């Protein structure tokens, strides 16, 4: 009896990954109030390994951000929808893109496409990108969390024309498949997003009512002394 070929299980596993990648969008809980910003999260390979982004999406929505998580193959459509929202005046700010693995590659591309369409991205956060190691012009700030357990270079460098800031943060003790699941990094992400929220407008100063000044007091009139009687004596 011959042993089963290892090729068939691998093909079956790959087919399963592709089917999972074709799943519909994640159900989203409604926001409690007006959105404090728009956050687009993008998963990595086969739309199944970046489960930490699912948790992060729920956390951001609990904080009243319009957050949604997507497959990395949806990047162009997400860009088109974002541009349409800007043109309609319905996009809440700040605008943040977050991605892991292939999704990290995609949010870097999306940041460039949005920048080319005159839609600046306030913040791009990447978790361990794979093949895209440069940030194009468009994002104002890029923060890259990466690990060094494999020989691939996971750092992000500026591409030609990039005029924002880039921070590469080495995360020790995590792997490519665990880095986006680290809850302490989720807390850092939320703090960064909260930090770029526009400050609420100061309440208008109370302007005192302007009343007409009282009329000036009338000067007291002294009584006119009576005229002295005409002298009856004439000079002679």
TrEMBL record:
Pro residues bias (residue ranges): 208-229
UniProt signal peptide: 1-28
Segments for region (Disordered): 208-236
Statement: the UniProt record of this protein carries the keyword Signal: yes
Keywords assigned by UniProt, alphabetized: Signal
Top-level taxon of the source organism: Bacteria
Name of protein: Thioesterase domain-containing protein
Source organism per UniProt: Neoroseomonas oryzicola
